[in-house]
Structure formats: C-alpha cells, structure tokens
UniProtKB/TrEMBL annotation:
Domain (TonB-dependent receptor plug) ranges: 89-195
InterPro entries, sorted: Beta-barrel_TonB, Beta-barrel_TonB_sf, Plug_dom, TonB-dep_rcpt-like
SUPFAM superfamilies in the cross-refs: Porins
Domain TonB-dependent receptor-like beta-barrel: 323-783
UniProt entry tagged with the keyword Zinc-finger: no
Membrane topology of the entry: Multi-pass membrane protein
Organism: Banduia mediterranea
Keywords: Cell outer membrane, Ion transport, Iron, Iron transport, Membrane, Receptor, Signal, TonB box, Transmembrane, Transmembrane beta strand, Transport
Name the record gives this protein: TonB-dependent receptor
C-alpha cells in the first residue's frame, strides 16, 4: 500500500471495525447496556434528563449523570454557531470540524498552532505579529503584512482583521469550529477559504472553577485557570487567564541564547446581566502580552564558499534544518500587546425572533520587532521597527435571527438578516538595515563564488571591504559602515455590508438554502520608502526612494444557494454552491513605487455532504466532497532581493474529507478519526517565479500543485478506559496518530523546498476522579521525532542558499495537573 493512501485506508479499516463492534453491541440487552459507564474529565453542569439529547453525554462526569436506566450511553447532538445562530452540527450545510474544550485540554492543544494534524485539510502557523491559516490548500503567506487573511478569525461573534489575534485567544475555550469553504454570505470578505469560529466558555449560573498546570521538559511552564461567580440572581462574571513560558524552539549558537521562547500572559473577563426575561447584556474584555526572542529562520542549505565565509563569524554555524540550532547575529526580539472589548446584546422580540447586537473594538501594539533578514551570523541585512506598528479595528453588527411557521408553500423557515460595519487603521514602520559594508561585500561575493570549500571568496570580500574603508575618509558623503531605508505603510479600511440567509423547509425533510451579502470596501494607503542616500542597499534589495498615495474601492456580491435533505432521523445530506471574495490591498514592504497594489480574489465553490448519527447515537460520521475554483489568485514571491505581491494565477482545489467519532460499549473508550484528500493545483500560472538558482526569470506552473497544500491529511485518536481498583478513580490511555503527506514550502516549487511526509505519534496516560474533581496526565509528544518545516525560502542575495522555519519540536515529555469544582 502506498503511504499516500494510508489515512484513507486507516479510516476505512477503523470504520469497518466500528460497524462490526457496534453490531455486536446492539445484540446486548437493555439491562446490560444500562450498566455501562463512560469516564471523562469534565466540570460541566448536569443537564436536565430531558435535555440530554442536545448535549454530548461523553463530556459529562459519570458520577453526576442521571442513571441511564432506559437509554444507553450515546453521543448527543453537537451544538455549533457556524451559521451565526445556534443549531446542531447535522443541520449545518457545510464541512465543519468541531474540537470541544474538553478535547483541547486532554490533547494538550494550548496554542492555535497545536491544532495542526487534528483537523483535516487545515494548516496553521501563527505568531504574535503575523499568521498563516490554510484550508484546502489556500491561505495567505505571512511574508507581507499587507495581505488580508483567506480564513476568517471569529471569536465570540467578532471578526478580527489580523490573524495575529489568534495567538491570544486559545484558553478557556468552549468550542473550536473549523468551517471549510467560502463563507462570504454570512461572514463577508476574507473568508474565501473558510472560517475559524471560536466560542469561549460562557458565564454560567453556578459557581465553578478550573485550574490546569502543565510542565514540559525543563523551562516550559503553562498555567491556565477560569471560573464563574454568580454575583446576583441575574448577574454573573467569568474570569479566565493563561500564563506561559516556553524554553524556546531553537538554540542560537551566535548569541548563546534560546529563540522562539514565548512569554505570554493573557486574561479575559466576561459578564452576563439579564435585565429581563427578554434582554441580556454580555460585555467582555481581553488583553494578552507576548514577547519572545524572534530569530526563527535556520540556514537549511548553503554552498561551501558561503559556509566557509559564515564560519568566520560563528564556528558552530550549520546548514541543517533537521536540528534545533540556528546562528543569527541580530538581537531579534518581538514585543506585542493584543487587546479588545465587546458588548453583545440579545433582545428576544418574540418567542421565535431575536435581535443581536455585537459592538466591538480590538487592537494590538507591536512595540518591537527585529528580524535577521539573512538568517546568518554575518552582519549583513536586518529588518527592525523604526516606530511601534499599531493596528486598531472597530465593528458593529446588527442581526435578526428567527424561525417562521408555515406559509408561502413552506412548512417552516429559519432566517438571519443583518447589517455590518467595520473600520481599521493599520501602520507598518520598518527599517531595512545593511549592517556592515565589509561583511556585505564578503557575503555577496561568497554567495556568487560557487561550491569550492574556502574558495578564496571570503578573503576577496574582506579585501574589498578593507579597501572601501580605506577610501571612506576621502569620500565622507558615502555611508561605508552601514545603510538604512525606511519603509512605511499607513492604511485605513472602511467596509459596510447587508447580509441574509433563509432556510425554507418545503417538507419536513427537504429545505432550500439561499444567502446573499452585498458589501462595499474602501482603502486608503500612504507609502514611504526613504533610503537616506543609500548606495549598496538599493542594489541588494531593489529599494528606491518614493512617497506614494493610493486608494481603492471594491464592491462585493457573495451569494449562496443549496438544498438540504434529511433521509431519516440519523442521516442528512446537503448540496451547496457559494461564492467568496478576498480583499485586494497594498504592499506593506514598499521598497520601490512598483508593485504597490493588488486586486481582490474570487472563488466559486461546490460542495456535497452527508452527516450522520448511527447505531443509537454511538457513532457520528460526516463526509464531504468539494470543488473550488479561484481566480485572480494573490501571490507573494521573493525574488532573492525583494518581495513582490501581485495577482498572477488561477487555481482549483478539489477533494473529499471526513471525520467520525465512535463511543465504544467499553467504559471510557472511544475513537476519533478524520481524513482529508485535497488536490490543489494551478489552472493557469504561466509567469510563476523560477527558483533563484535557475537561469530563467520565470516558469510555467500551470497544472502543477500549490505550495503548502499536502494531498493527504489524517488523524486517528483511540482512547481506552483502563479498569481501576478504586471505584472513585478512572484511568485512560490515548494515542494520537497525525499524518501529513509531502508538500512544497515555497511558491516556486523548488525541489529543495519539498517537505517529506510526516507521521507524528503522541501518547498520554491520565488518572483522575470519576467526578472530574481532579486529574493527572503524563504524556509524550512527537514520539517519532518528526522534523516538520513550515517554510523554506531563498536566502536574500544568495542564489542557491536556503533558509527554513521549523514548526515541530523533538520528543517532548510533559505532565498536566488539573483541578475542577
């Protein structure tokens, strides 16, 4: 069997085993089934017995459940807000993966990047100042902050215009929904690939608390806590926080320090005030401070002459992306504060119609950011901030959500209609610095010298640098020690939209879905590139002085149309066509007055799906097939000296994805599995960038695969309950198998940038009270010690040399202590 087909084969085999085992379980008597217990750590309140069909019983502590005298243990309907109102997952006409808060805690998913592998056809790489989320092969590269995201970030009904906010919110989570495919009709622009819809834990009407302490290796610590306090019969609050310190992703041999060692302190305060039976106010605020040493690029491959040159600055320098060492001379550091406040108002106008108002403000202050542009110990190029780079956004949404009875030939209808306004102000203030003329000369000559070890080029560079320094006093107007260029973008965005969606049931089982969004967006951009008399920097980076002003205006029409059909109480199907848009914008690295603007993307998507709850509710399985065509695709390319952003391609993504969850008759035992097959390729891209080492300036990638788009992704998580000698204790053993097939990591599809397929295995053993009052977990992550890279690019001004960003760590042991009340 080929490795590329392994996830689908594994899932098919597991599904076959599930069906066989469940058929055997169906033959047991009701009395035998009534004695089953399901163990899982949780602190959620116990629903009334009549409400159990709307809640996953597997997420409740056994000791608090009503005795299942008549019904077997089963998986209840999963409630989501993927369509902006509360409904079951089976009612949503879209491919959706849901990770509940309890699973996030048990699997030690503590940052947004940790979801990689668990969600099919989805890759995430987020930092405190930028981010990249890809669904079904499509996403926005983090190399240029002028790009909008292709995947919408929604937290508690608020849209966040910068992916960096996702680095601050993954604590005290109730539910994490990944909605795949264009979602423009309800969520607007910049959801062309999908939506990450996050719901934090709500304010409950009872006193409760949750505390988690995680220790990993030597210097990595994480503390998370949250609790609700009802202060009055109609007023309560919830406070949650997270404090974490990371030992770092790398060790920097040049500066003798860790890199990627994020320190983060985050808090969220939520209130709920029921003014009456029909009016509820839900204000909340959050803040997150994050800082880290931020050299993240390793040298992945260099020529012999370049390596010899760099060893003069650091004898320990290596060109190896498979280890956890790098060599950068720049004292890179990132310091960011993210914050926000919102007020949600829910006004029940009648028993079936509710008015929702969501007023929100959010921002971040990027106070410091320095990057080693050449990722080496040589003092060549670096990028730093001339001034802090702030981002602010304001949004207001009003919507009516409701249900209507029979009329106009329908049995019933569900509708949502609303208006949305958004404003943002974004500033970038970057300074590109040529650090040292002698090192720059040696670096460039070594990069051009070929592959002979110590081939004389470093000496030539040194001699050239010394010569320039000697003549420097006689030409004082030339900056022979260093050169700088200031690059800034000041951008304001205003957008407004009207939107609506209606689901009309022509019969009890068959419904028509129609949605539409009409939007208008205006952007203003002010650019500055000032080299302050630089001579060599323009040669190396293409910098040219200019001051430019641009404005752009876009209209959006995002329709959706489809049908839903419930075959029976257990199986439902849907077919949907949707159109999505991604905003055009401005280049945030305006080295020169060319290539400052790019246009909007457009996508048409077709999707068929089936959702089911089988065998008395113990098996949930979902399957979707899709085809999406993208036009005017936005691409960011690095030419070896500078970044270019432009619309240059048409592409297609087609495939199938599915997931299942099976609750075994054995107490405390279940199986989760998911897979995705995604064939993403360029329909047309005749002028794609050629690899920097090529003699050609461009290449035709028509028919070739997209970068960062693996064909196969899959996950398998069996959890087994272990019998205990203590009746009040329970034990569980869980294993994660996470598979991702090979993929290119740069848009030019250079063979050097091919990441091999990876198979990550995690294991954890948990012990705890059946009531969920406490638990202790010991685990190991990445048992297979897979090396996973998120990006490989050409080294600036050095064709044939490459740098990479690692996203995985080696084998990690950890322990988690948790208390709940």
């Amino acid at each position: 069997m080929r490795i590329g087909n392994r996830p689908l084969a594994v899932l098919a085999a597991c599904l076959g085993c599930v069906v066989c085992l469940q058929a055997r379980a169906q033959d047991e008597s009701d009395a035998e089934r009534a004695t089953d217990e399901h163990f899982e750590f949780s602190s959620e309140p116990v629903p009334e017995y009549s409400e159990i069909e709307t809640i996953s019983v597997a997420d409740e502590p056994v000791a608090n459940l009503p005795p299942p005298a008549e019904d077997p243990v089963q998986l209840g309907d999963v409630m989501v807000t993927s369509q902006k109102f509360r409904q079951t997952l089976r009612e949503v006409p879209a491919s959706v993966t849901v990770l509940d808060g309890e699973f996030l805690k048990q699997a030690k998913i503590q940052t947004i990047n940790d979801i990689n592998g668990y969600v099919p056809s989805t890759q995430v790489r987020v930092t405190p100042f930028a981010g990249e989320v890809r669904i079904r092969g499509y996403g926005t590269p983090p190399s240029n902050l002028g790009f909008e995201s292709s995947v919408g970030a929604i937290v508690d009904d608020v849209y966040y215009g910068r992916t960096a906010f996702l680095s601050a919110i993954l604590f005290d989570i109730d539910r994490f929904e990944v909605v795949r495919g264009p979602q423009g009709a309800l969520f607007g622009k910049n959801t062309i690939a999908g939506v990450l819809n996050v719901a934090t834990t709500p304010v409950q009407d009872y006193l409760n608390g949750d505390f988690m302490f995680t220790a990993q290796d030597i210097d990595t610590r994480d503390v998370r806590f949250g609790g609700t306090a009802p202060l009055a019969p109609d007023f309560g609050l919830r406070y949650a926080g997270s404090i974490s310190r990371d030992e770092g992703l790398y060790y920097n041999t040049t500066l003798d320090r860790p890199e990627g060692n994020v320190d983060a302190v985050s808090s969220r305060l939520k209130f709920e005030w029921k003014l009456s039976d029909t009016l509820t106010l839900r204000p909340s605020v959050f803040v997150s401070d994050q800082s880290a040493n931020s050299n993240l690029f390793q040298l992945a491959k260099v020529t012999d002459s370049m390596l010899t040159f760099l060893q003069a600055y650091d004898a320990e320098v290596e060109a190896d992306a498979s280890n956890e060492r790098l060599s950068s001379n720049v004292d890179s550091y990132t310091d960011t504060t993210l914050y926000g406040a919102q007020l949600n108002v829910d006004w029940e106008l009648s028993g079936d119609i509710t008015l929702n108002s969501i007023t929100a403000y959010a921002g971040y202050d990027l106070r410091e950011r320095t990057l080693d542009f050449d990722a080496s110990p040589a003092p060549f190029l670096k990028l730093s901030q001339a001034d802090p780079s702030p981002y602010d956004q304001y949004s207001q949404e009003l919507r009516l959500v409701g249900r209507l009875g029979s009329g106009f030939g329908t049995e019933r209808s569900e509708f949502i209609v609303g208006a949305y306004g958004f404003y943002s102000d974004y500033n970038t203030n970057d300074r590109v610095i040529l650090e040292d003329i002698e090192a720059a000369a040696g670096y460039v000559i070594a990069a051009r010298a070929g592959g002979t070890p110590g081939g004389g080029s470093p000496a030539i560079g040194t001699i050239l640098g010394e010569l320039l320094n000697l003549i420097g006093p006689f030409t004082p107007d030339l900056p022979f020690t260093s050169e700088t260029a200031l690059l800034t973008l000041d951008q304001q965005t205003e957008s407004y939209a009207l939107f609506g969606q209606i689901t009309s049931y022509l019969t009890d089982d068959f419904a028509v879905v129609a949605g539409l969004r009409l939007g208008q967006e205006d952007k203003e951009g002010h650019f500055v590139s000032d080299g302050d008399g630089a001579i060599l920097l323009p040669i190396v980076t293409g910098q040219a002085d200019h001051v430019s002003d641009l404005s752009r205006s876009e209209s959006e029409v995002s329709p959706k149309f489809g049908v839903k059909y419930a075959i029976n109480d257990q199986i439902s199907t849907y077919a949907i066509w949707a159109r999505g848009y991604k905003s055009g914008g401005f280049n945030a690295l305006p080295f020169n007055d060319e290539n400052l603007e790019f246009d909007a993307e457009e996508a048409d998507s077709y999707e068929l799906g089936v959702k089911s709850s089988l065998f008395g509710g113990v098996l949930q399985a979902n399957l979707a097939a899709y085809l999406t065509d993208f036009d005017n695709l936005q691409v960011s390319t690095f030419t070896g000296t500078t970044f270019q952003v432009l619309n240059a391609a048409a592409a297609r993504s087609q495939g199938v994805e599915g997931d299942l969850r099976w609750l075994s008759p054995w107490p405390g035992t279940e199986l989760r599995a998911a897979f995705g097959y995604n064939d993403a390729y360029y329909r047309s891209y005749p002028t794609a960038p050629a690899p920097a080492s090529s003699s050609e300036d461009s290449q035709d990638l028509t028919g070739r695969e997209l970068a960062l788009a693996p064909k196969w992704t899959g996950s398998l998580t069996p959890t087994v309950g272990i019998p205990s000698f203590w009746p009040s204790w329970g034990f569980q053993l869980a294993v994660d198998y996470l598979y991702t097939s090979e993929r290119y990591l740069d848009v030019d599809l250079d063979p050097v940038t091919l990441q091999a397929s990876t198979e990550v295995i995690n294991m954890r053993l948990s012990a705890g009270a059946i009531t969920g009052a406490w638990s202790l977990t010991f685990g190991v992550q990445n048992l297979t010690e897979e090396v996973i890279l998120g990006q490989i690019t050409d080294v600036p001004a050095a064709p044939g040399n490459y740098q990479a960003v690692r996203t995985s760590r080696g084998r990690q042991c950890y322990g988690v202590l948790r208390f709940q009340f």
